[in-house]
Write a structure and sequence with these properties.
- The protein has 235 residues and is mainly β.
- It contains 2 helices and 14 strands, in the order αβαβββββββββββββ.
- Strand 11 and strand 12 form a beta hairpin.
- The longest helix is centred in the N-terminal third of the chain and has 19 residues.
């Protein structure tokens, strides 16, 4: 086999090899990347306080839920209509116990809050924009929750969600991180091969008190569990 032919074979093997799935996948969630995608802008924060706070207070204020909105983040994409420019804000409405609380979502478009949603969930951590993995023209998104510390153990879970008929619905859930009071940490990066029926993959990472993540396993196909949070519209 001459040099040019050998090089062509190597290229073909690289492109079509199942181990080259990274060239065809997109990142759904990467806990080893601690950079928040987008913070809530001052303008959107004013909208939340003016238009969202009174409505969630009326619905959720009770002895166990002292409403105090705390933003977890915001993302920009097309969530309910293709090619739209919308902002989705994620926030804590209240905390009701160790790892328990009411979470909120506000959909903003053209400087107006067009929908508000709430769910009995966990402690809100972050929101992330996901490329259109099911190829329906809309962005999916992830919501990260912390469960608090229990007997020296803790972690965070992530719901993968999308909008359907104007409301957020769950696609699936997975354990994103776990940690111990010994400072040992484990995280799983989640990726997906886009398609009408996306294929998901995850890879394990470990870290200690140095907080430097190290690959601890091979990339493998993964099936999401049942979504954790269920949002209702706040009138």
């Amino acid at each position: 086999m001459n040099f040019k032919l050998a090089a062509a074979v190597i290229v073909l093997l690289t492109v079509f090899s199942p181990f080259a799935h990274g060239q065809k996948t997109v990142v759904v969630n990467d806990p080893t990347n601690t950079t928040k995608q987008t913070k809530l802008s001052d303008e959107d924060a004013v909208l939340i306080l003016r238009n969202v706070l009174p409505k969630v207070t009326a619905k959720y204020q009770r002895d166990a839920c002292n409403v105090n909105i705390e933003p977890a983040g915001a993302i920009h994409g097309a969530f309910t209509r293709t090619n739209s420019k919308q902002t989705l804000a994620f926030f804590q409405i209240c905390q009701t116990g160790n790892g328990f609380g009411v979470a909120g979502l506000a959909l903003i478009e053209n400087k107006k809050v067009i929908a508000i949603f709430g769910a009995d969930a966990g402690w809100t951590v972050d929101i992330g924009l996901v490329p259109d993995v099911n190829q329906n023209g809309l962005n999916e998104f992830i919501l990260a929750y912390s469960g608090g510390m229990h007997q020296g153990h803790g972690g965070s879970g992530v719901d993968l969600m999308e909008f359907s008929k104007g409301s957020p619905v769950g696609i699936g859930w997975y354990l994103a991180e776990k940690f111990e009071d010994t400072q040992a940490m484990t995280a799983w990066k989640l990726t997906a091969k886009p398609g009408k029926s996306p294929i998901y993959y995850r890879q394990k990472f470990n870290a200690d008190e140095t907080e430097k993540w190290r690959i601890a396993g091979k990339v493998s196909a993964f099936k999401l569990g049942k979504a954790y949070s269920k949002f209702d519209k706040v009138k």
